[in-house]
Amino acid sequence: MNNATEDKLKGNWNQMKGKIQQKWADLTDDDLKYEEGKETELLGRIQEITGETKESVKDFIDNL
To answer: What are 29-57's pLDDT values in tens digits?
Structure first.
């Protein structure tokens, strides 16, 4: 994962989580549980549930 995405995830996660859930309504709070150091797992969960590519998920987060 690139550092920009990691920095975004470590920043204001609750605000970002809301925007991610607006885009992909199928994601639950449990799906979006953030644990520092496990950013790649989080992106993998989002990718698996939404069917999006990892790149598109990272791009969405980077552009928040």
So the answer is: 999 998 888 888 999 999 999 999 989 99
- Give the C-alpha separation, 11 to 30, whole Å: 19
- Between vectors from CA 47 to CA 19 and to CA 51, what angle results, nearest 5°? 100
Q: Is 36 left (phi over 0), alpha (psi -120 to 50) or beta?
A: beta
Single pTM value for the model = 0.81
Distance CA 62, CA 3 (A): 10
Structural domain spans, the chain: 3-62
Measured CA angle at 30 (ends 27, 35), to 5 deg: 115
